[in-house]
Structure prediction request, 242 residues.
Amino acid sequence: MQNGTGTAASLKDCFFRMTDIVKQYPLGEEYVTILRGISLEIEEGEFLSVLGPSGSGKSTLMNIIGCLDLPTSGEYILKGNVVLDLTEKELSHIRSKEIGFIFQNSQLLQRMDAMKNVELPLIYAGVRPGERHARAEEMLCKVGLEDRMHHMPNQLSGGQQQRVAIARALVTRPSLLLADEPTGALDQATGHQIMDLFHALNQEGHTIIMITHDVNIARNARRVVNIIDGVMTEAEGEVTFA
Prediction:
């Protein structure tokens, strides 16, 4: 599918591009504008931070990037797909196959051990037990939890729980990792460990977009953009909200 802004060939080659994204919500008889003409292009294999204070529009942007919400206007292309042209079934496929979500809180199911938590997306995808077990084991080893696979969440530290969440995000082999304040619930030392893991994943070729309000965390990315009052600018030199 495509609209009038690009040829089929150019869309096929486009990994991630947003052009003039606007998001408005109704408020009584008027509309509140949250995002004001966001344009952003990301190459496969990038590690990007979107930095902004509370109320800047970064959560709204994250929901649109993750295909959890749609823009009011503008264009969003992900892996050659014009997102506004997709059906709900196609959007669901994008969310489950192409995007791995990592949240501030690990959101693990407390009655399942680490292995079963990581297997869960593959169960929903209909992957056979043998394959999903092997893939979950591979991802838990990748994040350094080979000796914690059968521990319950309450037997894991906060950092270990977040590593399980990262393994769960990776297990579907997504094109894009989307991390929302991934160190927000962790102490500083554990947060650094999670950032070290992100660096390692990026060096392996994973594309990462990280949403954060923390300047020091944002600086871990190879590239930083600022978002303030729904307007995005490329960060140059000192990363700041000013």
User: Anything to note?
Assistant: DSSP finds eight helices and ten strands in the chain.
